[in-house]
Amino acid sequence: MENKDINSIEDTFLAKWLEGKLSDSELKQRVGEEAYLSYLKLRKGIEVSEKLNASTDATFRNIQSRIEHKKTAKVRKLKTKMSFIGVAATILICFGLFTILKDSQTIVETGFGETKTVTLIDGSEVVLNSKSKLTYDEDSWDEERLINLEGEAYFKVAKGKTFTVETDNGFVTVLGTQFNVISMNNLFDVVCYEGKVGVKTLDSQHVLMPSHSIRKIDTKPTQTLFTQLSSPTWISGESTYKSLPVRFVIKALENQYNIKIDAESIDDSVLFTGSFPNNDLKVALRTVFEPLDIKFDEKENRNIKLRY
After folding, report:
1. With 90 as the cut, is the pLDDT of residue 73 above it?
2. CB burial class (10 A; 0-12, 13-18, 19+) of residue 176?
3. What are residue 222's phi and psi, to 5 degrees?
4. Residues near 193 by Cβ (< 8 Å), separated by ≥ 6?
5. What pLDDT score was predicted for residue 92?
6. Residue 122: inside a domain, yes or no?
7. What is the DSSP string of 211-238?
8. How many CB atoms within 10 Å of residue 245?
9. pLDDT at residue 10 above 90?
10. Are 153 and 132 in contact (CB under 8 A)?
11. For residue 46, with 0-12 CB atoms within 10 Å meaning exposed, 13-18 middle and 19 or more buried, which class applies?
């Protein structure tokens, strides 16, 4: 019963929004981020459908009318075959519509040891590190600059509307600045190099100034750190870490060199501070593991075994 009430309330908000009686920001505040993004797609789909085929206008007007009058409408059984066909047609139109909408999603991915530079619609620049993924919607970009990130990326954001980087571990929000984000497994690391950066995790909020950074690992409290660097070193061919559990450095090595590292025989929570080159595997392995007194054996098929 409670879910039905919630759905009815959300449908009311949606109807008012489609009629222009509710602003984007008001809708987002009432229904939440996830539902709001879905509704943006629905609105864009209605606009697309009107241009594609005038014969579908009545169908979408019918959908809007049903949403608007959902509270008072009576539930009726379908009595004729034509009614069933009408409902099926509506479902097919909606399915086709969301297929079209899905095509507006731009996805950029990198492979092992690969970096890519992406210039966004507004002139912002993103450098994507190895084994990372960037997703954004071109159609809704003018309304909301929103990017989803998996992995690591360095951002140079052009000034304008709020720019948001969404990850599984938290959100980063800016207007125009330069910053680096790592979001992989249970690591969330954000460094501000220029301007001001807002960061939100599940349990804390932060405003970062230049040279300031935050790091959250697993369920531990968020750490505040500092850097003397003016930009991340990985964009110049060297990966640098400060007091980071070596298990994350091992993952970075795997992503960079397309290798598999067996770390079962070591303590992978030990902290690593240092750098490794992104173009020489043997030097990278020595640079990371020798200071930690960890030995490594290179096996076949790019498998490496760690031991003490």
Report:
1. no
2. middle
3. -65, 135
4. 177, 178, 179, 180, 210, 211, 229, 230, 231, 232
5. 41
6. yes
7. TEEEEEETTSPPEEEE---SS-GGGGTE
8. 17
9. no
10. yes
11. middle
SS3 50: helix
Give the H or E element holding residue 97.
helix 81-102
Of all helices (H) and strands (E), which one includes residue 266? Answer: none
Show the domain range for 160.
Answer: 106-226
249 is a domain residue: yes
Check which CATH number belongs to the domain holding 192 and give it: 2.60.120.1440
In a shared domain, residues 90 and 147:
no
Run of H or E residues at 242: strand 238-245
**Claim to verify: residue 142 and residue 212 sit in the same structural domain:** yes
Confidence of residue 103 (pLDDT cuts 50, 70, 90): low
Dump pLDDT digits (tens) for 136-183: 999 999 899 999 999 999 999 999 999 999 999 999 999 999 999 999
Residue 139: both structure tokens together: 């159609």
Judge contact between 124 and 163, C-beta under 8 A: yes
Tokens at residue 217, please? 């690992």
Does 182 lie in the same domain as 170?
yes
Integer CA distances (angstroms), 61 to 46, 93, 96, 102, 143, in order: 9, 13, 17, 22, 24
Residue 274 Cα distances to 222, 239, 253, 268, 289, angstroms: 21, 8, 13, 16, 11
Q: Is residue 116 part of a domain?
A: yes
**199 C-beta neighbours (distance < 10 Å), count:** 25
